[in-house]
Write a structure and sequence with these properties.
The structure is a single chain. The protein has about 350 residues and is of the alpha/beta class. It has a single domain, classed as Alpha/Beta hydrolase fold, catalytic domain (Rossmann fold, 3-Layer(aba) Sandwich). It is about 35% helix and about 10% strand. The protein contains ten helices and seven strands. A seven-stranded mixed beta sheet has the order 1-3-2-4-5-6-7, with helices on both faces. Helix 7 runs antiparallel to helix 8.
Length: about 350
C-alpha cells in the first residue's frame, strides 16, 4: 500500500456533523465509523484572500481517497481550495449492505459542500469520478437553469457554480454488456430486481473481512457493487436524460460552464459515447471552453484508474487498480482548461 504518512489530509469534521449536510441526525456518521483513509477532507490555503474553490465528488462504492491525487494537483498547482465530501453509505467500517442509501441524500451531501465552499470562494468549480461525475453534471445543469441544487425547484439567487466542471469517467450512461444494453441495465436497476440481487449476494457470498459482505481487501472501496446503490445511480441517469434534452425539440443540451472531460475508451463501466454527446452539445455554446481528454482503448486504462497517479494496493499488499499512465498529462490539460479558462 502506498505510504502516505508524509501527506496531510485534514478531516472535514463539519461534513460529518452538520445536520444540513445529511438532512437527518439518523443519517449522520462519526469519524469512528469511517475506515482509515476514507474520511472527507479539505485542502485550503492559509490566506485571507479569496481563492477559486473546487468540490470533488467520489464514485459509487469508493471514498474520498480516490480524489486525493486530483485534489493535490488542483490545490498545489492550480492554487485552488479543494473540498471532498463523503457521500452517504460510503467509506464505512460497517456499511450494512448500503441499505437505504438515496441519490437525494447524495445530492444533499454535494449541495451542502458547494454551499460551504461558496462562502469564501472567488469562483466555484465542481467535479467528480463516475457517479460523482454524474452528480456534478446534474448539479451544473440545475445551477445554470436557476434551480435549487437539491430539489430542482426554481430559485431567485445568483449562480453558485461559476467556475468549471471536471468529469472523470462520468457515468452518464452505463456501458453496454453482452446481453443487456446500457439503457436496459439502468431500467432493471430501478426495479425490485436490484434489492433481490443484493439479498442473494448477502446470503450466498462470503466476507473477506468480518461479517459485512461489502468489506474486502481494498482499503478505500467496497468489495463489490451494491445493486440497490447502483439503482440510485440509474435514477440519477434517468433525471439527467430528461435534464439534458430541450423541452421543445428533445435535442441534447450542453453545459455553459467551462468543461473538462477525461474518459478512457477501455472503460467497461461508463459509456464514453454519452460523454462525447455532452462534449459535442457543450461545444455549441463555446467550443473554446470545452476539452475532451480521451485515452485510447489500446492503453487499457480502467474506469476508476483514471484518477490515480499511483497504483492502489490492498491490505494484503495485492495490487488493485493500476495507475493512469497519462495522469500528469491529463491534469496539466485540466489546469489549462479549467483554471486558466475560469480566470479569464
Amino acid at each position: 500500500m502506498q505510504d502516505e504518512a508524509h501527506v496531510s489530509y485534514p478531516v472535514w469534521d463539519q461534513c460529518l456533523s452538520s445536520d444540513d449536510a445529511w438532512g437527518s441526525r439518523e443519517l449522520q456518521v462519526g469519524p469512528e465509523h469511517i475506515r482509515a483513509g476514507c474520511s472527507p477532507f479539505f485542502l485550503v490555503h492559509d490566506t485571507d484572500q479569496p481563492r477559486d474553490a473546487l468540490v470533488l465528488l467520489h464514485g459509487l462504492t469508493d471514498s474520498p481517497w480516490f480524489m486525493r491525487a486530483i485534489a493535490e494537483v488542483m490545490h498545489h498547482q492550480g492554487g485552488m481550495d479543494v473540498y471532498v465530501p463523503l457521500l452517504q453509505g460510503h467509506g464505512l467500517k460497517q456499511p450494512n449492505g448500503m441499505k437505504e442509501v438515496s441519490h437525494q441524500v447524495w445530492m444533499r451531501n454535494a449541495a451542502w459542500a458547494i454551499a460551504q465552499a461558496r462562502r469564501s470562494a472567488r469562483r466555484l468549480s465542481v467535479g467528480g469520478l463516475s457517479t460523482g461525475g454524474s452528480l456534478a453534471v446534474l448539479l451544473a445543469f440545475r445551477d445554470q437553469d436557476g434551480q435549487d441544487l437539491c430539489s430542482g425547484e426554481q430559485r431567485s439567487v445568483p449562480r453558485l457554480i461559476d467556475g468549471g466542471i471536471l468529469l472523470f469517467s462520468a457515468a452518464l450512461r452505463l456501458k453496454k454488456q453482452i446481453i443487456l444494453s446500457g439503457r436496459t441495465r439502468e431500467q432493471l436497476l430501478r426495479t425490485p430486481i436490484g434489492t433481490i440481487a443484493d439479498i442473494w449476494s448477502e446470503r450466498s457470498g462470503s466476507s473477506e473481512k468480518g461479517n459485512d459482505q461489502l468489506i474486502g481487501d481494498h482499503p478505500y472501496r467496497y468489495a463489490r457493487m451494491d445493486y440497490g446503490a447502483a439503482g440510485e445511480l440509474s435514477r440519477i441517469i434517468e433525471i439527467l436524460d430528461r435534464k439534458r434534452r430541450t423541452r421543445r425539440w428533445g435535442e441534447l443540451r450542453g453545459l455553459t460552464q467551462p468543461l473538462f472531460v477525461a474518459h478512457s475508451e477501455a472503460d467497461t463501466t461508463a459509456d464514453i459515447r454519452a460523454m462525447a454527446n455532452l462534449v459535442k452539445a457543450s461545444r455549441l455554446h463555446d467550443p473554446n471552453q470545452v476539452t475532451f481528454f480521451r485515452i485510447g482503448k489500446d492503453f487499457q486504462v480502467p474506469h476508476a484508474s483514471i484518477v490515480l497517479a499511483e497504483r492502489a494496493y490492498g491490505h494484503s499488499g495485492s495490487p488493485m487498480e493500476p495507475a493512469n499512465p497519462f495522469f500528469d498529462e491529463m491534469m496539466a490539460t485540466a489546469l489549462r482548461s479549467i483554471v486558466c479558462t475560469s480566470a479569464n
